[in-house]
Amino acid sequence: MNRWVLLEHKIIGSKLIDIHYDFLVEDQLDCFTWQFREIPSLNKGVVKIVKQPNHRLVWLSRVEYQLSKNRGLVKRIDHGIFSYISHNQHSQELKIILNGNLLNGLFIIDGNVCQLMKNN
Question: pTM of the predicted model, to two decimals?
Answer without folding.
Answer: 0.91
